[in-house]
Design brief:
With 241 residues, this protein is of the alpha/beta class. It contains 7 helices and 9 strands; from the N terminus they run βαβαββααβαββαβαβ. α1 packs across α2 and α2 runs parallel beside α3. The model has no long low-confidence stretch (mean pLDDT 97).
Length: 241
Amino acid sequence: MTRTDVVVHSGGGLLAAAAAARLITALVDAQAARGVASLVLTGGRTGNAVLEHVRDSPARDAVDWSRVDFYWGDERFLPAGHADRNETQNRLALLDHIALDPARVHVMEPSDGRFGDDPDAAADDYATVIGSTAFDVLLLGVGEEGHTASLFPDSPAVHEESSTVVAVRDCPKPPPTRVSLTLPVIRRAAEVWLMTTGEAKADPVARALNGATEVEIPAAGARGVSRTLWLLDSTAAAKLS
């Protein structure tokens, strides 16, 4: 059964720095055990801040980045290189600065990619890409209404039980069309880290940690096989007992 840990930091900057140190250690440990590591990235302010701290860490190259497989938890279905794509932001924050293996960077197809403007085909393709992969660390953010990846409350995607990757339409936050992992595949990860900051997140965080269903608060359904780690700043944790 997964262990749930909650770590509260005094501010978002400290959270990002501490999460970066944790991430480097987790990837080093995975490579020591198996020779390779797999990491699922997330976008957003906190997710990118963590990657920037990894980039600037003196311990960064303790990880053999050429033996890390990179995946994404969700992606905005926009043209390649668009500033709002998680891939674009993550490359600026870290991936463009490390000696990775391009063949191990598994991006979700953009809206001008191989499948054109067809998010369902892009989702089906990514399901094939991930196959039966069980990720070492899967990073997630948490939205003000409790969404995680691009799984929004009571949406078709959060009810999905069979598909591992789905197209998401009519998102309540722009852009409206996205591609996202589903909860069943998220729960294959050894460790799931949910990282969020700010007073607006206090209510969904408290609800997720106090018994809300995943339909109500999708973040409540994001759990790791061995560990679920909530990394919060003090304002996001304000309503926890």
